[in-house]
Amino acid sequence: FAFMPELELEHRFVEMPASGPRPSQHGGIVAVVRGQLGQREEVAFPRPQQPHRSFPLLLTMLIVPFVTFCLTYTLSLTIERNGHHLMEYPKYFLSVSIESKPASCIGSFGLSLTCMLTPIICFVRHRQVERAAAQHFQTTPIPDRLTELNNRALKIGSGAAVGGLGVASFQSSIDACGGTIPVVCVHFMFAGVFFSGGMTYCFLMWRIDRYLPRLGGATARGLRRLFALGTGVQLAVMLLVVPGLVAINKDNFNTAVVVASAFEISLLATFMSTFLTFYHDFKDTSFSVMVFQD
Fold first, then answer.
1. Residues whose CB is less than 8 angstroms from the CB of residue 147 and which lie 6 or more positions away in sequence, other chains included
2. What are the b/e assignments for 152-165, b being 16+ CB within 10 Å?
């Protein structure tokens, strides 16, 4: 809906019947609104044409990063330059895999496409939660906390996408091709936004499930809980175990870097898997873009 400042929306998503009288020759979606003077009016919006299925977007968002990193790791581990592979032991980090051409070209393209789709997926999920809440709390008000969590998830998920775009845009090492300390600092800043946002989104999806017991199947809800808790464990390993290995023995530095690389990859896989749990919900969801002229 295009929200009109002079009208207070009273009911939303009241779909017009297939037949019968319509308040507008266009038919479509009807909203019952209350104006400033308290009068009630029915406002009809045109029916969206040719709604788009949400599922292909979700599938694309999940497949593209998987294929992207499979390609970038393969190229970085096999291509040699100046007598060295583009990626060498012990630095197997995601950022290193997209550091040098041609892997960097594939990495930038794949991550940009993924980050472009992420806010759309988060928005569709936001509306799914709103609808599930309206159905579950039919006789009681929707808890403010649930609305707050849902709105926060949309913002944080979209912010994480911006962080991922920054990771793909700024390189993570200092070299003669423009990799300076400020550039590296910007890269790690965006990486922090990306990973913290992804982890928080996982956690918020689990918190929302606690308010809506019928949102998704038992398996999907159980996986969301597992992924939310799993991200915490993985972060703890990276922040505590990895430095601990180095503190115990400096000879463990390379091993610690490999462990950190592995847990970084698993952390990305874990919070991306949270989107995979939306599989069945998205198969039954479509969306349309409506443009209104003031």
1. 133
2. ebbebbbbbbbbbb
